[in-house]
Amino acid sequence: MAATSRGPTAVPRVLHQTLSGHHGSVHVVRYSKGAATYVMSGGQDRSVRLWNPATGAEIKTFKAHGYEVLSISIAHDNTAFASSGGDRSVFVWDVATGTTTRRIPGHMGKINAVELNQDASCVISGSFDATVRVWDLKSQNRQAIMELKEARDAIQCLHVGPSEIVSGSVDGHVRTYDIRMGELRSDYFGHPVTSVVPTLDGQTLLVSTLDAKVRLLDRADGRVLNTFAGHVNGSYRTRACFGHAEASVVAGDEDGRIWGWDLVDATPLAPDPPPAVHSKVVTWVEQRPNDPGQLVSASADGTIKVWRLAA
Amino acid sequence: MSRLKRKLENAFDGNLPSNLKLNENFCLIGTPLPPLEKSKDTGEFVPLWKQEVRDEKGRRRLHGAFTGGFSAGYFNTVGSKEGWAPSTFTSSRGERAAHKAARPEDFMDDEDLAEIRESQKLVDTTEEMDLTGGTQAELARRAGAGDGPKDEITSALEDALLPTARDSVGARILKKMGWRPGQGVGPRVTWAQLKAQDAQSSSLSSADASKAVAPEHEEATKHTYAPRDTKLPVFTRKTNNQGIGYTPGATLHESTQGTAKTGPSISAGFGLGALNEADDDDIDIYDSTGGPSRATRLAYDVRDVEDDERPTLGPRRPNIANAFKAPQATSSEPPATFHDGRRVISGFVISSAKVSEDTLFPLPEIPPGWKPDPTRVWKTDASATTPAPAAASPPREGNWKNTITAEQRGSMLGETPLPAAPRSVFDYLSQKDRDRLRAMASGIVGAAPPPPVAIVVPTVEPRIAQAALKGFQPFVSDPAKQARYTSYLRSQVGGEEAEAAVPLTPKPGQSNEAFNQELAEYANAARIFKPVSGAMASRFTSAAVVEAGPKAVEGLHQPSASSSSTGPGTGTGMVEKMRLEDPPKLQAAKAGMFGPLTHETEAWFPARLLCKRFGVPDPHPDGAAAEAAAQAKKDKETQFEQETKRLAADAVAAAASSAAADPDGDGEGVGDGRKKDLSNVGLGEDETQGRDTLTYERPAMDIFKAIFASDDEESEDEAEATAAPGAESATRPAIKAETSPPPAVDEPVDLASFRPTFVSRVKREGKAEDAVPKDKEKEKKGKRDKTKSKSKFSLVSFGDEDGDGLEGPAAPPSTDVEERKHKKKRKSKRASERGGADDDDGMWVEKEVPQAVKPVAADVPQAPDAGARGRKRAIDFL
């Protein structure tokens, strides 16, 4: 099991800031890499915004998308990020200038998920057209390096590790493309997969599906170690994530609640049920990586909320 | 022609003694003239390929591609003997700061640099000569008429940051003379003069100006000042097509209001200097404000300034000063004004009669309790009994024509309708006929219902019905209809299926026509939705649910509170769209038994570049992917074969069930009963087409050699071949070689009777090596002693025979290949001397056709006739 040193299992529930700049729903919010000082969000209003969650200030707005922004991935050195959405192209941005450095067309449908690999030499995109494509950023080649067509329905989420690509698809499969082993491992869940988040040790995978379950998957043999339930999730992509030190699991639901579970015994953390803090579906939650007490949540009500632990 | 050429060549060929005379030197005393070649005409025509490009120093400029290209070596280019040899890499990491951008000059050679130097003249003709003191943009910037209002900080920053516009030559000269930007041009003026200038520029009257001259400080009068700068007129660019002076959107009053001019208006155009007197031509003839004294006007209005106080650039012209003393004439008639005080445009008088004004009517009084009810209008329209009263719907100006017809208007006005032409056929009928028709119609309707339409069951071919049963089900969303469709198809299939099927009858309450229509629909559906046959079908996956998509709602979208949430596109349709998995996996997932059943592992072949980008070694190096691809292909092929087999079987079954006559037909009516398979795809209907091409055998190599080989090779081959009699022809069994030792080994062969056969080298090698027995080897050894030589390269079976065979007596033994070649040449020469025909007859024999030869294989002397035949054939090939 991942969490050997059990940290505080409480979910940050004290509202620190509300970042309300988006018009329309916010689909994704991601912490920057490194010290994770900033968050970046993308929404239905076709913009990507950079925020300082500590002060609540909006630093920059990146506007080039012609359709909604569904996914953002920030490069390891915070100089670039990739975003994708309804306009069927992956946009690679330069953070400083706020301009796109690459616009990669090729997908037939909107791109639900985009990820940069560890050294930002590739960008991997998963689309409604049921393919995952790997694009080379080092060359100007317009063709994808590789096209992973195993999925039989839309790709909803991606995770890119040091030597693997994990995709979650609406066909109910989580597919792990292991580049080092040259192996494709697929796990079937029977319900559309909306998010995959691995633990730091890479042994387990947190998978949320549209049957309102979040499951902890043992990647070695496909067993489910724990099932976290109680929340409402039947229609929308809501991302589940690990709490600090991977001692808990946090997920938003369609009633605007943010749920927390103990990782080991899978019991909902107090308060149970949690209060509805957003007026609409919570589309994304993300725990600040190096800070036990900060969590951001994005919602379809157009706000991003920064949560902290009670002092 | 060619003979002449040859003769000339021979004449100039110095080697021949007869031609020595031509180059003979007859000069006895003094220096002889330079040879003929040197005194060549330099302007002589030289063909392009003989021309040479040389630079100004006479060095060759162009070299061949293999001798250095454009300019080889350091003679005229790159400064190194190697030419464009790559320099060794030196890292510039340490001197990044020192690194400066490369200029174009760094890449230029001497010629280019010289060119540049030449082009850098003292005054650059291409440089922008800014006579007006700045570009238009600069002017606009200075005048503050840039894009949008600029605050001071912005303009100050711009001044500081932006590069200054290049000064004109005049400005530079002026600057040298002490002028500063912002000052006017001219000698320095006193305080009073300066004030006068200010007043003048701000269009104050001279009296005010003289008052204002009183100095604020005593000190002020003690200094002289630079004159005020003359304001530059800024003309806006005219981009529209409207007339000059027309302001779009302005009313008549507005357009005339603001143009109250003080001075005479100078007609638009150029050429009037600041102090030039305006002529009659220059003054705008359409300007009526001027009055009689329009002459002697200046473009520059300086009338009230004292002459001595007026700083001028040019020579003084005191006479014009007096001209301005005359007061400006105004129009004699009293100025007419409108009632609001505005002046009437000159040349116009106020009309006494009023222009028609917009009459304003008071709003009609709305009766109390009246509510707008648009449906009432529709109702009245629908009933159309009484036309709406004109007051209720007043026809709008402009489009009333379109809305009301003449008849409507007439009926509105209560006119009696005009007798119009009859419109219908019935109008032409007489009243009696019409009555009769009416009676008949009523009789029919009333008497009896129409006879029931017979149920016509459209037939579908059993084969198609069968296929449609298996294929796409079009009415999934309506189970009842689907059931009826299925039963219809079953009835069409025939056999026990039809017996099992529930007989299709009209639904209760369904008319026969509707039933017929339904059946026709089913028949059509069956034709359309029969599955793509066989191999094609396996490539498509039919969706589980088709008609389950969201129903389109007619009309405008009515937003509701519930549907306003905008999720990221993972609609509820996903669950339904999910394809059904194979049962064990699905069941395991449903039961929550995640584990081995839901976990699958298969090989995956990442692209090589992907591995490289992820910094991971290729998991399947050297062609595993290709292997897998081949495997996949094979699988696909077998799948394809299976599919075709299955298809064929299906077709057979279908044909059998439909009692088709042809048991082997594929249902498409191929008449000859020949089964199509992959091997005869593309041959059309002709079975035998291309058979001869496929069975064509390549003729033996010897034939080609006999035809195409060069003389040298021929002789070589000849040497080998003539030695070959002992060696076996390709078709002969190897044993023959053992049983019949080569006849040419011991006794000298008679040239007339001997016929060698040709054997390909490879076969010869193999055969000879495993067929030639040890004793033969020994023999060879003996012979080797005798001939003392054997080529290292020559083959075991022939080397000795080189000496001993046909050529044995004629040619001396050679020790190496070169010598052998020489020998061959000599040989060939000799052969040619000997005469072609004899040579051919003696040497060249075609290899026998295997079947013909086999019985007489060991018989070498019998070859001649075969040889003759062979030669003939070789010629035939030509």
Automatic annotation (TrEMBL), chain A:
Belongs to the WD repeat MORG1 family. The keyword Cytoplasm applies. This is WD40 repeat-like protein. It is found in: Cytoplasm. WD repeats lie at residues 19-61, 62-103, 104-145, 275-311. One of its GO terms (cellular component) is catalytic step 2 spliceosome. Keywords: Cytoplasm, Repeat, WD repeat. Signal peptide: none annotated. The keyword Repeat applies. CDD domains: WD40. SMART domains: WD40. One of its GO terms (biological process) is mRNA splicing, via spliceosome. Gene3D superfamilies: YVTN repeat-like/Quinoprotein amine dehydrogenase (2.130.10.10).
UniProtKB/TrEMBL annotation, chain B:
GO terms for molecular function: RNA binding. Residues 202-226, 241-261, 379-401, 554-576, 656-696, 709-878 are annotated as: Disordered. Residues 166-186 form the G-patch domain. InterPro entries: DUF1604, G_patch_dom. GO terms for cellular component: nucleus. GO terms for biological process: mRNA processing. Residues 202-212, 382-395, 721-730, 850-866 have a biased composition (Low complexity). Residues 710-720 have a biased composition (Acidic residues). It comes from the Eukaryota. Residues 214-226, 762-782 have a biased composition (Basic and acidic residues). PANTHER family: G PATCH DOMAIN-CONTAINING PROTEIN 1. This is DUF1604-domain-containing protein. The lineage of its organism: Eukaryota, Fungi, Dikarya, Basidiomycota, Agaricomycotina.
